[in-house]
Amino acid sequence: MNNVNDTNSEPATMIQVLIENARTVPDRTAIIWEGEAVTYREMLDLATSFGRALLRAMLGAGDRVALYMDNSLSYLVAYFGTLLAHGVVVLINSTYRQTELAHIIKDSGARFCVTGERQLPELELIRNRLVDLQTVITLGPSWDKFISGQSMREGTVSSPPPDAPAVIGYTSGTTGRSKGAVLLHRNILANARNVCQAWEWSATDHLLLMLPLFHVHGLLVGISGTLVAAASCELHAGFAAGVAFDRLQSGAFTLFFGVPTMYSRLISEIEERHLSARATLELPGMRLFVSGSAALSPKTFAAFQDTFGHTILERYGMTETLMNLTNPLHGERRPGTVGRPFPNQEARIVDLHSRQPVQVGDIGEIEVRGPHVFAGYFGQPETTAASFDAEGWFRTGDLGSISSDGYVTICGRAKELIITGGLNVYPREVEEVLQQYAGVREVAVFGMPDPDYGERVCAALVCDDPQPTPEDVIQHCKAHLASFKKPRTVFFMDSLPRNAMGKVVKGELAEKFKAR
Ligand code: MLC
Ligand code: AMP
């Protein structure tokens, strides 16, 4: 049914990969969603219908289409459909509230937004402020109407140029307002190919994917890798340890990707079910568990090995660069490290001042270079220029050291960032919201260790009397920000510890409250 241009040369975009798979293995399952298998041919047809509808609605090449919704098959249809119509997909966390949402839609200048019924009310609150946003497509009847709509313009979808922007992923900085990282079609394909090569991802693999599609981990590793390998993937709405364990025991899967919280919850699930003998926990068929997006503790690494008999492979990535470093598929997977660069990509560690590579064992900033590295921050040439050096090395803002045999250990961050359950929280953004609460005089948001989320968001406040309760403050944050950013612990102080420059010493706060 589709009229997509076929190509016989080596695919240069993920869309060409999809077209190629639909041609060579049309009846192979690509995605399983809610028990229904969707073949490569069907996926291309569905995406083509959506892409054509966008063209009828006057989408121009390079126009942004924001996806603000939970995981579903429609998410993938909208994603591939947008790319087929030469639009640019803007990823938005489906739990974002109006301020976060308004910023991304305005900053990206999105003309279209595809949203779920659960998210629509939040979007409606700010709709009249979003001058560029012309069309909102809500899953359900509005989606059906959009797809079947008539127009004078009948567009033909095709593969976009490899150098064109494909995805904008928002990731934050020091200002508290997130920046859009522009990934080109060729960046996404290059990284997916390198990942497939390193992990020997092949057509016989079947991935259990419970990560959100609005982040690169789920979409640009899980889905992209599946396509490049012409493999299949069972997509879920989200992660639940019980469901994950049952599915993994079914024998249907070979791959699982997760953040460390998912691995520690899988271990707890076994404890809760009082299953202890390893024999009962066999996960038939599984060949690879990969962890990323946050540091996997050696404790969880060892406990998972003990419980399930599998050695987790830890890798390191970021929105701007996709996947950078990986422990080996064959060879030692060293706990506490993120391994070496993926094939065809480079990484090095440089001194923070001289910007020269450090000696073995010394700590510096991790820099990366290669075809996987993004084009820059949307509409921010100066910030982009400051993120790269003259030789094209990208400064990750992560601190690390390298061993004599090339394994990198991440030791901290040059950027101020809390990673909770694989989700990033920029303290400044939460501080700005807390500042608005009546009676708050000073505020500092910082991370502390958490057994479930790895790190937890904490806030120290200096307030006028009468002091608010922690619950008041937390509710205030939930009303203004995605709920995962709220402080889970609130401390009240008479004054905040500051250095000679007047800057709050957050390390001291974390140390002080650790004892409690
Ligand atoms: C949800 N909540 C969280 C949270 N996730 N709080 C802190 N940290 C988190 N990560 C809050 C919700 O707001 C809610 O609060 C309550 O916890 C329960 O919500 P839930 O929906 O039941 O969530 P939960 O089961 O706890 O989710 C945990 C999780 C999820 C680990 C399954 O956070 C998740 O899927 N994380 C993966 C994120 C990811 O894909 N990161 C990749 C980024 S890309 P309340 O109060 O409202 O009830 C990247 C690059 C790379 O980093 O290298 O990959
Ligand atoms: P994001 O901006 O959401 O893409 O998050 C990227 C950040 O996640 C990186 O800059 C790292 O700080 C962190 N990260 C990703 N993978 C790992 C890992 N394996 N270990 C430690 N930190 C990680």
Fold and architecture overview:
It is a single chain. The chain has 516 residues and is of the alpha/beta class. It folds into 3 domains: 14-186, 3-Layer(aba) Sandwich (Rossmann fold); 188-339 and 367-398, ANL, N-terminal domain (Rossmann fold); 418-513, ANL, C-terminal domain (GMP Synthetase, Chain A, domain 3). Helices cover 32% and strands 25% of the residues. A 9-stranded mixed beta sheet has the order 2-1-10-9-11-12-13-14-15, with helices on both faces. The protein is globular. The model has no long low-confidence stretch (mean pLDDT 94). The structure holds malonyl-coenzyme A (MLC) and adenosine monophosphate.
Record keyword descriptors for this entry.
516 residues; Rossmann fold; GMP Synthetase, Chain A, domain 3; 3 domains; 9-stranded mixed β-sheet; 7-stranded mixed β-sheet; globular; binds malonyl-coenzyme A; binds adenosine monophosphate
CATH class of the largest domain: Alpha Beta
Helix content: 25-40%
Counting helices, strands and paired strands, the structural category is: alpha/beta
Mean pLDDT: 94
Give the cofactors and ligands.
malonyl-coenzyme A, adenosine monophosphate
Number of β-strand runs: 25
Q: Low-confidence segments, ≥5 residues, pLDDT <50?
A: none
Shape: globular
Beta-strand percentage?
A: 15-25%
Radius of gyration: 23 Å
Give me the CATH architecture of the largest domain, please.
3-Layer(aba) Sandwich
